[in-house]
Amino acid sequence: MAKINTEPLSGMRDFLPLDVLRRDYVTETVKRVYQRYGFEPLETPTMERLTTLLGKYGDEGDQLIFRVLKRGEKLERALADAPTENSVSDAGMRYDLTVPLARVFAEYRSKLPRFFKRYQMQPVYRADRPAKGRYREFFQCDVDVVGSTSPTVEAEVIAAGAEVLQELGFQGRAGFAIRLNHRMILRGLMEVAGVPHDLEGAALVAIDKLDKIGLEGVRKELDARGVPAAAAESLLGAMAAAPAENSETIAWLSNLLEISELGSRGVAELKQVMALSAGGPAAEHLRIDPYLARGLSYYTGPIFEIEFPGLSGSGGGGGRYDDLIGMFSGQTIPACGFSLGLERIILIMEERGMFPERLSTQPQVLVTMFDDSTVAASLALARRLRAAGLRVDVYPDNDRYGKQFKYAEERSIRYAALLSPREQEAGVVAVKDLVTGEQVEIADDAVVEWLLAAL
Question: What pTM was computed for the model?
Answer without folding.
Answer: 0.85
